[in-house]
Amino acid sequence: KEANRPMPNKGDHGLRNEKFKPVVPWPHVEGVEVDLESIRRKNKAKNELHHHGGGDNKQQNIIQRQYLTFKPQTFVYRDPVLRPGVLGNFEPKEPEPHGVAGGPGEEAKPYVLGPDYKESIQASIKEFGFNMVASDMISLDRSVNDLRQEECKYWHYDDNLLTSSVVIVFHNEGWSTLMRTVHSVIKRTPRKYLAEIVLIDDFSNKAHLKERLDEYIKQWNGLVKVFRNERREGLIQARSIGAQKAKLGQVLVYLDAHCEVGINWYAPLIAPISNDRTTCTVPLIDVIDGNTYKIVPQGGGDEDGFARGAWDWSMLWKRVPLTKREKEGRKTKTEPYR
Known about the structure:
By secondary structure, the protein is of the alpha/beta class. Helices cover about 25% and strands about 15% of the residues. The longest helix is centred in the N-terminal third of the chain and has 17 residues, at about 35-50.
């Protein structure tokens, strides 16, 4: 009974008795893509066979790989339009509701615990990597601060965006950080675009990620699903498994298991893909302080905080500011960049 009760402060996010319907038709699939590597290997085998005069047919060992290719996209999406001073069609019309009015961590303000919690905090950080003591005191539906450029609020997007399956991989994740990720996606994503949330449990052994998780997600009536790997696969392989399990969405969105999506996060991320399905998009990723849960802009970048991600030769992650050449080719400050 408890699992089926609507959650407080969810507005229309209870999602009870609401069947998901895709916004636009699925893309069709046809054809075989030319595999140049396979052709190269086949020709090499032919040459070796001819050169040595061997009688065995080495071509039998050649692997020919086939790839499914998409038909050219026929559905035309309108490009996003910037209308200064006119609130965007995907922007919330009212301030975001608090998870708990005046509660800890609302509006992503820092929540600092006193010295009495020092030992338990250190133990939780050792076990989970974050201050789970503070996290467990913060609402799973908490409000967040808006760190976007002011111009972001005035973009208007085509209503016929593609739908998404959100894939989240976790291994022995803390309860509240994992569930706050799920809650934030449901809270801040228009229902008609959120096809499903696919949780991939990469062989966790924590008790709270077993029956308790199975019971908890029942409140969303199938929107949230959990699949468990029978052995530890690692993040990337587990994400590939998530792609196989995701059946409903037209786009795959991968999120970490301890994040919170921002205000109007969906349309800017999906619009370029809706316009061209060969596009991959990456958001600006702000930082959640793992001790106080304050959300601040990521460091580095140019004067607007814009940067590209890159690795140096030590495989350390860097943020490289946009070049002058890139900026000169932009018509607005907040349009996507390469």
